[in-house]
TrEMBL record:
GO terms for molecular function: RNA binding; rRNA pseudouridine synthase activity. It comes from Breznakia blatticola. Belongs to the pseudouridine synthase RsuA family. NCBIfam families: pseudouridine synthase. The lineage of its organism: Bacteria, Bacillati, Bacillota, Erysipelotrichia, Erysipelotrichales. Its EC number is 5.4.99.-. It holds the Pfam family S4. This is Pseudouridine synthase. GO terms for biological process: enzyme-directed rRNA pseudouridine synthesis.
Length: 231
């Protein structure tokens, strides 16, 4: 059960003060009856709420998959670069948080949600959720480089290892890691005297980037996809 004013405010029909005025003016019906009490309790899973001629659909949590372009930061605010949230044309956009982050010049799979528990489940270091990246490198990786990455390189006084490395083209590789250190992929390549020229994340856990999403586009995750990631 939820208060009617909180319900409307959650759906971004105004501030709590504004939606109280809407309700008291008689513009909202619940199951066909006009309700003027802003503290009226409704069952958001069963009751039919209508405002401005539209049946309202309540959703507590939102889960979005985005194909992040470069030039955008994975945070709410940044003085130098625009936030990925500016690419989400939904009323709840700035309630979302990034599930893990991608560097401003990194593209690919980014998950956004307002579900803190889900966010923690995916990003918790204890779970070792795999992330797969496609890297364009300055030089081809030698066998010794690949072995060193499997054995581990030192980042932040800790050993970081590649789970899997696969060559795609002359200087393009896919690499799987199960950590999320700052600039980790780039720093791992630096450790073997190489440079990342382009980077794209294509997988988190068992969830792959939707190939139908162009850069900057997004879609809601399905219920099954949320469950795949641990929701």
């Amino acid at each position: 059960m939820i208060r009617l004013d909180k319900y409307l405010a959650h759906l971004k029909y105004g501030t709590r003060r504004e939606v109280k005025k809407i309700i008291r003016s008689g513009e909202v019906t619940v199951n066909g009856e006009v309700v003027r009490n802003d503290d009226y309790k409704i069952d958001e899973t069963k009751d039919e709420v209508i405002y401005d001629g539209f049946i309202l659909d309540y959703q507590e949590f939102y889960y979005i998959m985005m194909n992040k372009p470069d030039g955008y930061v994975s945070s709410n605010n940044d003085e130098l670069d625009p936030s990925v949230l500016h690419l989400v044309f939904e009323p709840y956009a700035f309630d979302l948080q990034c599930v893990g982050r991608l560097d401003v010049d990194t593209k690919g799979l980014l998950i956004l949600t307002n579900d803190g528990k889900f966010n923690h489940a995916v990003t918790s270091p204890k779970r070792h959720v795999e992330k797969e990246y496609v890297m364009d490198l300055e030089h081809p990786l030698q066998e010794a480089d690949i072995q060193q990455l499997y054995d581990g390189v030192c980042i932040d006084d800790e050993i970081s290892k590649a789970i899997k490395i696969k060559q795609i083209a002359d200087m393009q590789y896919a690499m799987v890691i199960d950590e999320g250190k700052y600039h980790q992929v780039k720093r791992m390549m630096h450790a073997v005297h190489n440079e990342v020229l382009g980077l794209k994340r294509i997988r988190i856990g068992d969830l792959y980037l939707d190939e139908n999403l162009d850069e900057g586009e997004y879609r809601a995750l399905t219920k099954e996809e949320v469950e795949i990631l641990g929701g």
